[in-house]
Design a protein that fits this description.
InterPro entries: Peptidase_S1_PA, Peptidase_S1_PA_chymotrypsin. The chain is mainly β. 13% of the residues lie in helices and 37% in strands. The strands form four sheets. It has an eight-stranded antiparallel β-sheet with strand order 6-5-9-10-13-8-7-20. Strands 14-15-16-19-18-17 form a six-stranded antiparallel barrel. It starts with a helix and ends with a strand.
Length: 336
């Protein structure tokens, strides 16, 4: 192997100057689709050409310094992360997507409606439906979904789907309706206004409602606009319940492919929706997998590509996701 590496080091720039060549290294020769045990100088090309279409200078030598070569077609090599935030058709899970009034999140998975059989885009309520409780007017079925999301440059020209349904998110606090509480607030505000005229005190009632999922689905404008193959991961190979210690991974719009281990299941968690609102979620899964803003909506899978959850929240130290079976049942869909 040493002789091969030395030869490649000496000849690499000459080889790279040949038409269509994008890389050169050392490996094992392929015959058809099978890898052999014969060492060879591997030459990577964007596209294999018929020998009759190439000049003598454009031919890859069969041997270099007496060492066998092998040509492998690989297409154009580019930074994979770039495509996550670009307009791509068909769009893959793992790419940027979002309601037209949302910055951007992640296209989690391609699912099938159990009633109609039509393919749909799965992500979070707060990505596809603008974090609505169903009564606040933040979104409505039929709203446009962009790919990429608005923050990544998405416009009406990038519309890919329309919102079809969502599970409402109930906030953890609501303005107090108690007459006594409101009376106390009025008296308190008279005192506050003598010091800070532009400030008001308000009482809020903590709701006992806990959410179970943050999810929604959108109908693509055409079925051929989306793919079921998760970017960088591949196709889903079934579903499984999360367990403490289970290794998991995801493909997200912001941090790409990351992995971690499940820390806890059956968790009730307070989640900040924004600076003014919290929501409570029950029966959630916590893991130490890295994620950041924009990764919301990512499908969480095992090492064997079995789906375990739908990512929707996190901090600098943990990631939180809904159990996938609950998501599918609530939305009446199934994974493809």
């Amino acid at each position: 192997m040493v002789n091969f590496l030395k030869t490649v080091e000496k000849a690499k720039w000459r080889i790279m100057g040949i038409k269509n060549v994008v890389g050169v290294g050392v490996g094992y020769k392929h015959v058809g689709m099978e890898r052999t045990q014969q060492k060879a100088i591997i030459i990577f090309v964007t596209k294999k050409e018929d020998l009759g279409n190439l000049s003598r200078e454009e031919l890859v030598p069969f041997k270099i310094n007496g060492l066998e070569t092998d040509v492998i077609e690989v297409g154009d090599i580019r930074f994979l992360e770039e495509d996550r935030k670009k307009h791509v058709r068909p769009a893959q899970p793992g790419m940027s997507v979002g309601h037209y009034r949302v910055t951007a999140g992640t296209f989690g998975a391609m699912v099938r409606d159990r009633s109609t059989g039509e393919p749909l885009i799965l992500s979070n309520n707060h990505i596809l439906a603008n974090g609505t409780d169903g009564k606040d007017g933040r979104s409505a079925p039929g709203d446009l979904i962009f790919q990429p999301g608005e923050y990544d440059g998405g416009t009406k020209a990038d519309r890919i789907a329309t919102l079809i349904r969502f599970i409402p998110i109930q906030k953890g606090e609501a303005p107090a309706s108690c007459p006594i509480a409101n009376g106390v607030a009025r008296i308190a505000n008279m005192l506050v206004h003598t010091i800070r005229p532009n400030y008001d005190l308000k009482f809020f009632k903590r709701e006992g409602v806990a959410n179970h999922v943050d999810c929604a689905v959108a109908r693509p404008l055409s079925p051929d606009l989306i793919s079921d193959e998760i970017l960088g991961i591949g196709k889903v190979q079934g579903i499984i319940d999360a367990k403490p210690g289970m290794k998991v991974k995801k493909s997200g719009r912001t941090t790409g492919i990351t992995s971690g281990v499940v820390t806890a299941i059956g968790t009730t968690m307070q989640v900040k929706m924004d600076d003014n609102n919290n929501a409570y979620f029950s029966n959630q899964v916590i893991c130490d997998m890295k994620s950041q803003g924009g990764d919301s909506g990512s499908l969480v899978l095992t090492e064997g590509n079995k789906a375990v959850g739908l990512l929707f929240a996190g901090s600098e130290k943990v990631t939180v996701f809904n159990p996938i079976q609950t998501v599918l049942d609530k939305l009446n869909v199934e994974l493809l």
